[in-house]
């Protein structure tokens, strides 16, 4: 498996960071977050699920792998990086959701989801939250307030585990981009997301409830 790494190799903080359904591990979003976290002393390891790796090798745009393949990939990546007790797992959108499905099983230090897909766009009745009601792993979800996969108004009504902390980025969409009239920039939202992630590593991802 191919990895992209940022941050000091000797860091005690390791983040295994997965991409979303449509973007590879080296998209501008993934790269900016990984490099900014690396600059803050956190070791960030990016990787790709098999379908995305196949796209890179052959150029064919296949659909995402079935869920068992995605979850097994996460299990393998965690094993290759020393086991759950050593790492925080997570990712963008689908990557974060897959991480949340194995977090308790693998006993990871923590979970970070950037733009969690609480439901498909336009289908708010199809919730992807059943496992989040009993999650034990300390978790940080960073979400744009107008994310079409789960707005602030929608998510406020969900029953979620007390292990989950949700932070909202002003006027952000699924990739944290605000409208020009919002008074905040995309870069500002991303910088706040990275600060929240850094804080989570130092203060929260050290215990399990």
Using only C-alpha atoms, the radius of gyration works out to 16 Å
The largest sheet is: 7 strands, mixed
Sequence of strands across the biggest β-sheet: 1-3-2-4-5-6-7
Q: Helical region count?
A: 6
Globally, the shape reads globular
Q: Which fold name fills CATH's third level, the topology? A: Rossmann fold
Low-confidence stretches: none
What is the count of distinct domains?
1
Mean pLDDT rating: 94
Helix content: 25-40%
H and E order: EEHEHHEHEEHEH
What name goes with the CATH superfamily? Answer: Alpha/Beta hydrolase fold, catalytic domain
CATH architecture annotation name = 3-Layer(aba) Sandwich
Structural class: alpha/beta
Count of distinct strands:
7
N→C terminal distance: 32 Å
Write down the CATH class: Alpha Beta
The percentage of residues in β strands lies in 15-25%
Précis, in short:
Helix content is 33%, strand content 18%. The protein is of the alpha/beta class and 209 residues long. The chain is globular, with a radius of gyration of 16 Å.
């Amino acid at each position: 498996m191919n990895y992209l790494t940022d941050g000091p190799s000797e860091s005690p903080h390791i983040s295994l960071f997965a991409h979303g359904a449509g973007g590879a591990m080296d998209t501008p979003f993934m790269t900016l977050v990984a490099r900014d976290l690396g600059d803050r002393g956190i070791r960030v390891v990016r990787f790709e699920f098999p379908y995305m790796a196949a796209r890179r090798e052959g150029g064919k745009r296949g659909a995402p792998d079935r869920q068992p393949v995605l979850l097994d990939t996460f299990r393998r990546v965690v094993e290759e990086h020393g086991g759950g007790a050593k790492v925080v797992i997570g990712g963008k959108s689908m990557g974060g959701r897959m991480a949340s499905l194995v977090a308790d099983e693998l006993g990871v230090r923590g979970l970070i989801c950037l733009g969690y897909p609480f439901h498909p766009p336009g289908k708010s009745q199809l919730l992807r939250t059943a496992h989040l009601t009993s999650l034990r792993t300390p978790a940080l979800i960073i979400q744009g307030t107008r994310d079409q996969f789960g707005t602030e108004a929608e998510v406020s009504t969900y029953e979620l585990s007390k292990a989950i902390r949700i932070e909202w980025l002003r006027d952000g969409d699924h990739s944290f981009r605000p409208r020009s009239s919002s008074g905040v920039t995309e870069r500002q939202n991303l910088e706040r997301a990275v600060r929240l992630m850094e804080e989570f590593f130092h203060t929260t991802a050290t215990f399990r409830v």
